[in-house]
Amino acid sequence: GQFEKLPLTETAKDEIGEMGSTFNEMMELLEENYRKQEEFVSNASHELKTPLTVISSYAKLLQRQGMEDPAIAEESLAAIRMETERMNSLIEQLLHIARRSETQLELANVNLPEVLGQTVKVMQTSFNREFRLIGGQQAIVVKTDVPKLKQLLYILLDNARKYSSDRIEVIVKNEGAPTIQIRDFGIGIPKESLPFVFERFYRVDKARSRDSGGFGLGLSLAKQLADALHAELEIESIENMGTTVSIVFSGDFNVQPVNLKQEGLR
Ligand code: ADP
């Protein structure tokens, strides 16, 4: 195979033997990484191919019958537009995943309730849904990268919106650590699926998630963003009851004064 391991005997306990087993552990890690990359490329290609197939067959239909039948023309064009948008959104998400290591953090001291207020307002206007902001009467200042935090919030708020129909609660508090919680009262996630939701391309219900436009990349991107921001992402969910996702800022990193950029509160 690609990742040859050293044939080690059980008795190789000297330094050379130790180096050998370290080497083998490295090979195992490389192999696992390589396998994951392959799986990622194969998943991404598959997801891109699906809308292309739809676009191609509607284009054929349009060419054959679109001139005589306006209804068919209309239907084909609508489908082509929708699938183009889906492809676009997938490519954007893939680019975000790929750009991970390139972008640098732009840190500033920010008041969490203020950032949340702005984000919630945008969501509220875009989707005409109720997002109820709870807490945040007092300032909760963390050191963070605002565009990245907003991107993270949009992913979580969008999921809450997609998978529930009732109000969505956005809770901000500072009990032990600055924390944001996004809580919905929607369909929830089955217990057996919960461990996998942060994996790329994982969807609990492919058909349902596809209807709402998802590729199963949102939460893996959210995790990536949270890691970059030194925050923990926790998810709790009960099927048919709802889901709560918490962003917990770490005391060490996020609650220290910024000395890189002295621009104060934003
Ligand atoms: P998607 O883009 O498909 O929503 P995500 O990576 O954001 O993908 O989420 C992975 C899966 O986890 C989703 O397909 C959905 O099944 C489930 N999920 C995520 N958030 C919620 C939520 N708030 N309520 C119920 N299910 C959720």
Task: Please tell me about this protein's structure.
It is a multi-pass membrane protein. It catalyses: ATP + protein L-histidine = ADP + protein N-phospho-L-histidine. There is one protein chain. The chain is α+β, with helices and mostly antiparallel strands and 266 residues long. Helices cover 51% and strands 17% of the residues. The protein is built from 7 helices and 7 strands, in the order ααβαββαββααββα. It has helices spanning 15-65, 70-99, 112-127, 146-162, 206-211, 218-228, 251-254, and strands at residues 108-111, 131-135, 141-144, 168-175, 177-184, 231-238, 242-249. The strands form 2 sheets. Strands 2-4-5-7-6 form a 5-stranded mixed sheet. Helix 1 (15-65) packs antiparallel against helix 2 (70-99), helix 3 crosses helix 4 and helix 4 runs antiparallel to helix 6. It is flat. The model has no long low-confidence stretch (mean pLDDT 90).
Short description:
With 266 residues, the protein is of the alpha+beta class. The protein contains seven helices and seven strands, in the order ααβαββαββααββα.
List the defining traits of the structure above.
266 residues, alpha+beta, five-stranded mixed sheet, two-stranded antiparallel ribbon, 7 helices, binds adenosine-5'-diphosphate
